[in-house]
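for the writeup, i need someone to sanity check this before i put it in the appendix. the sequnce is what the collaborator sent (i think, or maybe the updated version? ugh). structure was predicted straight from it, no edits. if anything looks off just tell me and ill rerun, i have time this weekend
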Amino acid sequence: MVAGTGAVVGAACAVAAAPFVLGAAGFTAAGIAAGSLGAKMMSAAAVANGGGVAAGSIVAALQSAGAAGLSGAATGAVAGAGAAVGWLASFFH
């Protein structure tokens, strides 16, 4: 596979997979699913912050993305990370 093709495929797959990965981790449109990885993360964040999840924390950002979808900036970041992985993977035939 050509390195540039790997980057394009990686970016597209990462953006397409992001909603499914968020849902599988428990970050859904209806809230954080009980018993999920997201629930465990939320619990740990709440304990660390004295009972609440801090605004802007990773848990808050993931729940926001799970509920409303990725923002333009987040889509760009996910695409960039996927492109980097795809580009690197293209060197391992």
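The mean pLDDT is 89. The chain has one domain: 3-89.
thx in advance!!
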